[in-house]
Amino acid sequence: MAVNFTTRVSSSSQTVEICRGRPTVLIGERINPVVRSRMRQALEAADFATLQQAAVRQVEAGAAILDVNAEAPGIDEQALLKEVVASVASAVDVPLCIDTADPDALVGALEVYEGRALINSVTGKEPSLDVILPIAKAHDAAVIGLCLDDDGVPDTPQARLRVAEKILDRAARAGLDTADVIIDPLALAMGAESDAGRIALDATELIAEAFGVNITMGISNISFGMLDRSAINAAFVAMAIRAGLTCAIANPLDRQVMNAVMAADLAMGRDDFGLRWVKAYRERQAPAEPAEETPAPRKTRRK
Questions:
Q1: Residue 111 lies in a domain
Q2: Is 249 contained in some domain?
């Protein structure tokens, strides 16, 4: 395997390190109106208290970074994303992952963000590479690179590896360190494509072996349209960690997924003497609120 890189992102008061030798970092996915109608309604009403409550709950459940999205029909994303970022940052100390396809909205959000943000995302498409990478460099941000290009989402692990290589090469030319690029091999719905899980896992392993970069995926995408989604997500995230995943975009309120992440870290030797597992087990003995339904899959941008 290539050298394992460490990606550092931060808030105004807290730094998170993502590295293959450390426990898996959980990126909370729930502040997203694209997949959660409650978030869309809150944004439409400028109800930032609801967003702050969602942020606090995710951090309390174990999220180390929060994905923040303000994209919805009829919403002025450029104006609103700045307010959402500032509101969430005032409620929690963890770093934020700014999730937008609008470059102007991204720049506005980065200008008000205090810390070193993670950008979600750049793709292998030329317009994306030409615009997003310079923004990341100018604002000293890390970036997630999606394994899709001008031909769409590649249907083989090897082709996704080539897109990852393209993104990393262009990022280097734009002045970004390799450590500041996290690759997303793309988890697609297995209900629509039977070998989607295998392709994502094989691509993860290939990319980790070739480049040593950190790897993320939207875990809940894999189970869309299936029954008992939490069980599928939990099994998939554990397999993905073994393949090379270092930071999962997932629902921290889903205990099956969180348990699977911690158990996989334990099995991979990333939990000394099982202390993290024991602590989490004891915390799980307290009465829990009913689990919320896993959201629909995050949109894979193809524009």
A1: yes
A2: no
